[in-house]
Write a structure and sequence with these properties.
Elements: E1 5-8, E2 13-16, E3 24-29, H1 40-58, E4 62-69, H2 85-93, H3 97-114, E5 122-125, H4 130-142, E6 146-149, E7 152-155, H5 171-180, E8 194-198, E9 218-219, H6 223-233, E10 237-243, H7 247-262, E11 267-273, E12 276-278, E13 281-282, H8 293-298, H9 303-311, E14 319-320, H10 323-341, H11 351-366, H12 371-383, H13 388-402, H14 406-412, H15 418-436, H16 440-452, E15 455-460, E16 463-468
Parallel strand pairs: 3-4, 3-10, 4-5, 10-11, 12-14
Antiparallel strand pairs: 1-2, 6-7, 7-8, 8-9, 12-13, 15-16
Helix pairs in contact: 2-3, 4-6, 6-7, 9-10, 10-14, 11-12, 11-13, 12-13, 15-16
Bound molecules: adenosine monophosphate and zinc ion (ZN).
Adenosine monophosphate binds near residues 42, 246, 273 and 284.
Length: about 475
């Protein structure tokens, strides 16, 4: 197994990844709240988590990955003052909460399929696990980590030695957060306490309610992830993933209740993806208009171009979205597919060289998932003196992790033989020279000559790219 160094939010440093059981990884991902389409920011997180899972598999781990689907009332705040996202969706579309959940669950998995995001081994809707949530809350009440107040059940954060183990939050920041809240929940003993089970909420018109020892009600925001993870992956989790906005309070509270319930440390590695931002800041659904995969398709982008856009940056850096940069990525993607389409089938596998490049790929990915460096290794393979069979082998191999659909795209593109590719590159070079010399007549003649062979060219900021006209 090659060395895999990964940044761990829990220890706040990059460290070697070592699962609890040799060769096996138990991985949990916070899934979507299915009240609306996922925006491409949400999908950045899922793309990078997919890369993480696939890289673990690539290096030989047997991975079991679990994801929840939040399809039950989910408040934007623990103080019962935020909006209930599922109810909001149902009201907006004049549908029932379950209809909304079904529709957007399907939309989410459709988006994932288009982005080559593998479906986790287990996907579990929260509404399937109410008895498990109730059981966990009963245990927390029994062992003194929870209390009932005003009809709700709360987790008592003062019972923990270290509540902020994951986050950098401090009392001062929290004061600000509390001030920002419209109303404070007077039932809480401590301001960081959070609801495990609601029977009394501002949102009394909840459609989905269940019988419980505390009356008809529904679960709080955090209990579902702890409970679903423990249900499917047991009490020792290797790695837990989500976007950085989940660090506090969601993941902080997951740790609190899971460890209070289990009586031991729960999860060793925490993987967080930084946000996708637009000009106005973090991409979010509350802003009204937001970018989705179907919208990108409408504008003529292959969703895998967006996947490549994400892979070009490190997952721990905020990423600024713009159509200009996406256009550049589109050009790079098309160039890459053209180069692969032009590869012949000849050669025998050059095992030693193949291993050298695989090593370079693993060095890049093993360095805290440096996907842009891994892409550079892929370009190096194409530029190398390896024979075509070895190049094809390596592209297929790396794409098990990158999942850019490169060979498929190259195979469905028009047959481009190597001589035609060479011809195109040579004429483009001549045309560039002619343009430099301000010989525009010659440049136009070259464009026409290329067009005759079915080759279309486009001048972009990154240089001239060509495609076959029929594509
Ligand atoms: P939600 O459906 O709102 O629960 O979010 C699903 C996932 O997307 C969570 O892991 C969030 O942390 C993540 N997320 C939310 N906004 C962004 C963003 N702008 N960029 C990247 N990830 C995000
Ligand atoms: Zn979660």
């Amino acid at each position: 197994m090659s060395v895999f160094n990964l940044y761990n939010t829990l220890t706040k440093r990059t460290e070697e990844f070592k699962p609890n059981e040799e060769g096996k990884v138990r991985m949990y991902t916070c899934g979507p709240t299915v009240y609306h389409f996922a925006h491409i920011g949400n999908l950045r997180s899922y793309i990078m988590e997919d890369v993480l899972e696939k890289y673990l598999r690539y290096t030989g781990y047997d991975v079991k990955r679990v994801m929840n689907i939040t399809d039950v009332g989910h408040l934007t705040s623990d103080a019962d003052s935020g909006e209930d996202k599922m109810l909001k969706g149902a009201k907006r579309e004049h549908k029932t909460v379950m209809e909304i959940a079904e529709f957007y669950k399907k939309a989410f998995f459709d988006d994932c399929a288009k982005l080559n995001i593998k479906t986790p081994d287990v996907t579990e809707p929260a509404t399937n696990c109410i008895p498990e949530f109730i059981h966990m809350i009963e245990e927390l009440l029994k062992n003194g980590y929870a209390y009932e107040a005003g009809g709700n059940v709360y987790f008592d954060t003062s019972k923990l030695e270290e509540y902020y183990v994951l986050s950098n939050q401090n009392e001062e920041e929290l004061q600000v957060a509390v001030r920002d809240d419209v109303e404070e929940d007077i039932n809480k003993k401590n301001k960081t306490d959070f609801v495990l089970w609601f029977t009394k909420s501002k949102f009394d018109e909840q459609e989905l309610k269940w019988e419980s020892p505390w009356g008809m009600g529904y679960p709080g925001w955090h209990i579902e992830c702890s409970s679903i993870s423990i249900k499917h992956l047991g009490g020792y989790l290797d790695i837990h993933c989500g976007g950085v906005d989940n660090i506090f309070p969601h993941h902080t509270n997951e740790i609190a209740q899971s460890e209070a319930y289990l009586g031991h440390k729960w999860c060793n590695y925490w993987f967080h993806v930084q946000h996708l931002n637009d000009q106005t800041g973090k991409m979010s659904k509350s802003k009204g208009e937001f970018l989705t995969v179907p919208l990108l398709e409408e504008k003529g982008y292959n969703p895998l171009v967006y996947r490549m856009f994400c892979l070009q940056s490190h997952y721990r850096k905020p990423l600024l979205f713009s159509f200009d940069v996406l256009d550049n990525t589109k050009t790079s993607y098309e160039k890459l597919v053209n180069k692969i389409a032009a590869l012949g089938e000849d050669g025998t596998l050059m095992q030693q060289d193949i291993e050298e490049y695989r090593k370079k790929f693993k060095e890049a990915m093993g360095n805290d998932l440096n996907t842009s460096q891994a892409l550079t290794v892929l370009y190096d393979v194409l530029k190398s003196s390896l024979d075509n069979a070895s190049k094809r082998y390596l592209i297929e191999d790396f794409d098990k992790v990158l999942s850019l659909g490169l060979l498929d795209a190259a195979n469905t593109s028009v047959e481009i033989d190597e001589s035609l590719a060479e011809f195109a590159e040579k004429l483009i070079e001549e045309r560039n020279q002619a343009r430099k010399n301000k010989d525009f007549a010659k440049a136009d003649a070259i464009r026409a000559e290329l067009a005759e062979k079915g080759i279309e060219i486009k001048d972009t900021r990154e240089g001239t790219v060509w495609t076959m006209a029929q594509r």
